[in-house]
Amino acid sequence: MSLTSPLFFAFLAAVVVAYNISASVPYRRTVLGLANAFFIGSYLTDIIQALPLLGFLLLGYVCVRVLEVWKAAVALGLGVLSVLVCYVFLKRFSFFEDLGHLPFPYLMIGLSYILFRILHMMVDVRSGDLSERIGPLAFFRYTCNFLCFVSGPIQRYQDFRATDGVAAFDLDSAKVYDAFARIITGYVKFVIVAATAEYGFSFLKPQLLQAADLPVLKLYGLYAAAASLYTVYLYYNFSGYMDIVIGSGILLGQELPENFDRPFSARTFLEFWQRWHMTLSQWFKFYLFNPLVMLLMSWFPAPALTAYLGVLAFFVTFLVMGVWHGTTAVFVIYGLLMGAGASVNKLWQVAWTGRLGKKRYRALTDRTAYIYFSRGITIAYFVLALTCLWVPELSDFDRLIGRLGLTGILGPFLAIGGAFALFWFVTDRIVPHLTTPTFLLSIRDSLIGRNLSLASKMMAIVVITTLLHKSPDFVYKAF
Amino acid sequence: MKHILRQAALTFVSFAFLYATLGALSFLMFPDSASEGQRDFQNAEQTLYMTVPKYVFLGRSVLNSPAEKAILVGASNTGVGFIQKTIQSKLACAKVSNLAVGGANISEAKQIIDMVHEVQSQADRPSNTFVIGVWFGMFVDSDVKYADPDRNRGETDIDLEKYRYGFYRRTLEGPAALLPASWLDAGVLAIRPILVIEKMAREARAGVNLLLTGRKSAQRNEAEREAAGMSEQDKKKALDYWNEAMGKRNEISLGQVEVLKNTIETLLRSGERVVLIDLPIPAWHRDASPFQRSYEQAFTDVSRQFDGQRSFVSMSMSDLSKEQDYSDEVHAKRHLADVWSDRLANVLNPFVCRTSPEQARVSLRGSDQFKAETHQ
């Protein structure tokens, strides 16, 4: 079910109404369970396509239940291994082709995020952070929550459980308006900004990849423009999707975690990942980075090494996070680039803190030139690294990088970084001086003004949707 | 729950208010031009509909009348080559509409014919004369022709218009109507606010273009086309383009030839008349293109197949192939379009306006300007 389809709107409206009709907890949980099943069913043309997903869920549930009674490390290790093998098999990673595959088409949407939820439950059950016994229906409602099914956010079970069909939740007219506004803003991002960027990107990409004899400057320009447009598309598509599901969650009493916090204002690569796809970053921090640092520290306990172990752990964590994004060899390159970005960033911090001391290093990072320089290179690095996501075949990727050469990468890197730094510099100088006249503010904030503002956005969404020749799709669905 | 319902109602009412306001505005800005059975669809840009495919799709209900009609379908060379007003002025007995859509292949021309039928009753069909303008560039399979990155492969411009406003839905078999054709005008009325915003957006873009480049669009106007010529390099580019665009090596799509045959057969069977025109292209293009030979063979085959049917006539204007009469490798300049239009009017007059085929035959023989055949 596409988020922009009339079926989704009808479905969402029906679920919200059905959920809020009664305050009975069992009733509300039944509504959520049925909604999840209907949502997943909308992706199927044959029930057999759901069997692998059901098998994966069953395996995860069995692992969680086993860990409730057998909390040994070996049990967790075996459980994690079996779930990962099953996941890799079902996702058909190109470098594990020898594993073979099922001889029929099946549903793969949602598998990645279900994996995160299952692993989190297993680890938390074993550590005792999750002590309650989890029933199969609660497990299904959590792992297959239709709002987060396709692409998150990754919510902890404990947080989900706190709002799972609760009898009363605090919902006043202001909160409901905010929820509506959030959903509509999400669609503005998704349908207008992201789709427009994708429109431009889809015209530039074939020119970049197919044309053989482009003049050098045009090639570099095309690459910089295509990479930038893809980033705009990715961000607004994904963050728009998040606004839609978080806003919808409010109407269903769910407090879904935020996934973005102005990522393009980040000054460092590590800060960027604290603001971009935050629930994924946090998941990796809790379940990979922290255990890895602890393990490395137990192997190399010398305090002088601690910072460098952190660098290594960052590299491994970001490498795995990058590889998770796709099933081809190019995603290993993406992982290496992410790992390199994170570890070099950490190494830089360690080196300069050691050289200047914490106070002077902080003073350095607060200098205007440093701020905009680091913002520029952070974003430029991320923008160019994303090339792996839009050129996922190794042969195409190889050919593109070969044609660009070092100059073709450095040139766009500097151009994007410079443009971005300049943009932020100008924005930071101008925006604080912009003020809206009081009478306009009072009109905007009045009941009529607020609702006409929503209606105008809806009108813009309808118009742009009709202008597009293809329905916009959710980009992270593929990951 | 009450907060949710209240907010839903407020949002709905605000949206409805805005929508109705824009709808009213659309009538003030673009009053509905009542037209009796004809419109100059090539003038889409001046209307609320903006583009020919949209105008053809949304404005075709005017063709629902028992009056005699001459309806032109084809690609852009039919659009610019046959001037609706010129033909209309010489064809008193029928209403002339030029429904040619730029870049159309035979399948899309057939879609347009089908759309006309959708809004007409079976009884009115014998009043139709379909003029189908063809050249080799129209015989390309849809999967090859319509493969831009911003559309689903194989979807024609008409398909896009069908899906755009939800009047049709996508199915594996192609567009399936959600809105019955009899409700077309009501549907168009309902989407007028959207059309007016689209129109405003397009005008704004044209304004920006004018500001930045000194012209509203990249398309050449009539005077520029009249003055245009092609260098040897332009000609080579054009040949390369068509070699690439045809998707086959040296021959046209036989599938499209079949579509044309079936279309003509269906039209004749339902009592409609067909004028099939072999549209000329400049001689240099005709002689250099590897596709022309298979096209000419196909045109002859199709013409022969319907030879002897009183409602069919084929027409060729191969003598009109001087390079200087064309603005590019396909399109006739305005002065040549006047000649094309005259010739077509001369064919249509006896064919459409006189009921006796003999009269038509005599009239056609009387003209030495064109080569045409009628078949009884």
From TrEMBL, chain A:
Alphabetically ordered keywords of this record: Acyltransferase, Alginate biosynthesis, Cell membrane, Membrane, Transferase, Transmembrane, Transmembrane helix
Subcellular location(s) per record: Cell membrane
Pathway listed: Glycan biosynthesis; alginate biosynthesis
Top-level taxonomic group: Bacteria
Transmembrane residue ranges: 47-67, 72-90, 102-122, 179-204, 216-236, 283-300, 331-348, 369-392, 404-426, 447-469
Stored InterPro entries: Ac/AlaTfrase_AlgI/DltB, MB_O-acyltransferase, MBOAT_fam
Topology within the bilayer: Multi-pass membrane protein
Broad class of the protein's primary localization: membrane
Recorded family membership: Belongs to the membrane-bound acyltransferase family.
Protein name (database record): Probable alginate O-acetylase AlgI
Species: Bradyrhizobium iriomotense
Automatic annotation (TrEMBL), chain B:
Protein name, entry field: SGNH/GDSL hydrolase family protein
